[in-house]
Write a structure and sequence with these properties.
Number of strands: 38
CATH superfamily of the largest domain: Spore Coat Polysaccharide Biosynthesis Protein SpsA, Chain A
CATH architecture of the largest domain: Alpha-Beta Complex
Helix content: 25-40%
EC number: 2.4.1.16
CATH topology of the largest domain: Spore Coat Polysaccharide Biosynthesis Protein SpsA, Chain A
CATH class of the largest domain: Alpha Beta
Number of domains: 4
Subcellular location: Cell membrane
Oligomer: single chain
Shape: elongated
Keywords: Cell membrane, Glycoprotein, Glycosyltransferase, Membrane, Transferase, Transmembrane, Transmembrane helix
Largest sheet: 11 strands, mixed
Strand content: 5-15%
Protein name: chitin synthase
Enzyme class: transferase
Number of helices: 33
Amino acid sequence: MAHSPHGNDQWKISHRANTTTQPSLSIGRSQSPFSRIDRYKPKSPIIKQDSPQHSHDHNEEEQFYTPDSTRQDAIVQQQTKVAPDVAIISQSHIPWTWWSGYAFFLTCCIPNWALSALGGKRTKLIQQAWREKIALCSVIILLCMCLGFLTFGMRFALCPHERETNTYSFYNQSTGQTELTWRTDINVYGRLYPFDTVNAFFATRYNMTLSRDFEGANLSPLFDADPDRLCSLYAVPSTEHCTVMNPYTPEPTAALNHSCISIHELTSWFNADRLLEFSWDDLKLQSKQPVVPNQPYLMVLSDTVIDIHAYLVANQSIFGDNVNMLLRQTAGQDATYIFSAWDDAKAAWPCISRMYAAGVISSDTMGCIAYEIVTDFFLALVVMLMLTRYSMALVFHWWVSRRLTLPGGRSRGIFAWRSIAGGNQFPKKHRPSNSSSQDTLVAENDLLLNAPKANKSDIFENDPRHTILFVTCYSEGRESIESTFNSLAATTYSNDHLLLFIVADGIITGSGNSRPTSEICRDLLTLVDCGPDEEEPAFEYEAIADGARRVNRARVYTGHYKSIPAILVVKCGTESEAHPGNSKPGNRGKRDSQMILMTFFQKVIFYDVFSPLDYEIFWKMKRLMKAGLSPDKFELVLMVDADTRVDPDSITHMVAAMNNDITLMGLCGETKVANKSASWVTAIQVFEYFISHHYAKAFESIFGGVTCLPGCFSMYRIKAPKHGGWIPILANPDIIQEFNVTTVNTLHAKNLLLLGEDRFLSTLMLRVFPRRQMIFVPQATCRTIVPDSFAVLLSQRRRWINSTVHNLMELALVSDLCGIACLSMQFVVVIDLISSIVLPAAILLLLAFFVNLGFTDSPQYQPLFILLATLGLPALLILFTAKKVSYIGWMAIYILALPIWNFVLPIYSFWHFDDFSWGETRKVNELNTTHVLTKDEKPTAATDNLTVEKKLWHVWEQERLKSPANRPQKIKRSLPNPSPTLAYRVTTVSPQAVTSTPTIYPLMYQHPMYYHINPRPQHQQQQLYRNNMHLMPPQPRPQSITMYHQNHHPMPMYQQPQQLSQNSHLQYDMNRRFSTSFY
């Protein structure tokens, strides 16, 4: 084995980290490589992998950046071909968790062979997805049943025998006195019978007719209340010759010539459920009056009102002296407690209640009281939440939104606690970070240089940000693509700071197109590298796919669209995909297109190994941009779909908001419907788009946590300034690792990754950076084409609803979002999740309410208040925000379509939880894009030998510059070395390399102040410079580049080589180059 003459550790880039004080460098979710131990808060990954997972570049990081491996050992390995472990979906392996166990328990009666034979679900993963769908639907049904119980069922559970009553008296507001209620029924021992029923009873049974004078009268004396002889021990009055006095004359006009009628005879004729109800005021009023004919004299036993008028008139001590005394002294009171204390009174109680019952006292049971309290609480909670959300939305529109694009942003006034002004400059007042170490990456304390302060009035005008206009294409036609490009070209933003980055997801010919979408995009550009009919060579990269599709190839075209520089990446697929039966060669999905951009900037920021495609994009982007602008200068990316038209000043407003607040990591504008009147399907969507932005996103912007930035029109921050350094945001390894998952074997993971990649990206941003903000900027607007047929709308909303439910489930677990308790973003997410799930039940319960309203005399009015708030508050929001009367009409159309939005679409979506037709498993022309290996099938040789060559940037650059035969026509236009280069001799020892390997590290940011300063001894500095001068490629010596010494004094480069080597030594070992501080 050959060794360097200097030994293994004489000229290392950085000394090996002390594992006792340095954090682990593993990129896995168990601990981030950018974690500070004392701040680390572990978070489990959203998508758990059972086999080694390889992202575009994390396979190298996971392999090399560990405590047992140094950067020196990784350099040689990174320059060799990387053969990733191909993630193979095996039918025989399903991860066993409590959730999969619950799903199997619910569906254990349906064996796999039945699903395969009858349901067409032939693989175990598809069968497991169906079982998990049933489990999810069971949870949804349970929550809907809980809502139904709270609305209707709890009333019968807590207050099951709610009696129907008529009041004895009422308070007259005009006279200010209590008056008797006029009734037309008949009172018999407290029960109310219809007059016509009682009159028919007497006429049929006893040939007696009652006059209308007896309407509302008490006919209890005509009936024997004790046919069961409960009063046999007492000398009760005789039941012979029963009479009733006429209410208007002193003569007894209602009389029987024989014994009183048994009460059982009347109840068998008609069973009366309605009772006469007395209030406590009635008892007090009657007890103060003297005993007169036809006037009750009342008291209470339990909840029964006793009329002792007949007992007092008879003036007999029927029940004994003690009871007689109690009856006379407790008139007008509740005698329940006293009667319970006396034995003789307790014995007489049943007889008294039977013979002298007059009605019931006005009171509620404890169950009824509890029911009223619970229903009123939920009513108040729902109405309060709605009022709060709408009021906060109005606050956002009236005060906050106006500050977003003005100099200073929200850094002044009441909302300063969520904002930091100053763009890329070091903020004047920077509040300390207190979040976990998984959020961000910053420079170490010795990088806190005094950067010059920016004039707030010139933040946007004099310091625009370099922005990527990222457009993803799939099967769109020329008209929609050209309209999108024209809208981006017509922007008022500086074209010198824009780059149009287009990714065509495969060679696909859309419906109605005569040519593939990729060729349409190429025809629209003015190419600089090749002619219109020429093709660029294809370059490999690692795609988001399984098996042989893990490796993909793409062509890179450069040119201009009008005056905007443009790069077109066309995913063309491998040679095995180029056959007539494949209608989608190169297609890997939108998430893979986004990963091309995200991993590219991650590799640029961290100087990681480049795939052939990454390097091709790098050098062509640098050559294309004005003055050879390096890709690391881009800070923002605007993601736009190919069917979206952006308004001219939208990018200006978005970048201004980003400039004014460095805590913003993402924002979106308002998406409007372009084809409003195309059909009734588009008409019902107009107000839905409006309310989702000006209500939901406006409210979430107050907390700085918009839960979904739409993929058609959103801007993200690639990297953010902090403490004089840079931290990756969209290019953060934690985000890229979880966004770049190839093997998804659970229903939850598939709904996250295959149906709603844009919403999942927003979820990851909030999860990784809970202290940063994502907001809605209403000044930025765009217009998009919405589905105009119900079938397309059904398919679109199925993906959106299912993705929303699963993403909200993940966000509900993020406990460190803004706010606390009920005033927190987490509480809002939980409420949104529950409301999304119970929408079908809510619409059915609303229908039941209207049915109940028409068939009952005592309906529940709580749902009516909620309905009025739901319909009235959006109308107020329209008047205060849109200020367009036309939106009232669109709202009326939306209300008529509520059964579609709240019942049809959710029910269809929930039942199709296991439908992943939008994403990796999508089929076109009978082509299955996901190969699922059976239990006995083995990977093919092509799968076993998959390799993607990866090298560091300087290796690619040396090969390109030293091999002009590879590109003889382009070498003259190729970029020079990206920036002045420093080279150091490094001795590395690894299993793949036995000799030392020289490494060249470019100053990607053109300024050593962004890197750690690590002085070396003087003799090492001189030897370092002499040993590595021969590795530096020829380049002009810059005269104006200045670096900073450790004491912050400027020092010209190349004029003091010894000091240069000493003070600008680049620490690319992650744990020595950066410290961590989450924000």
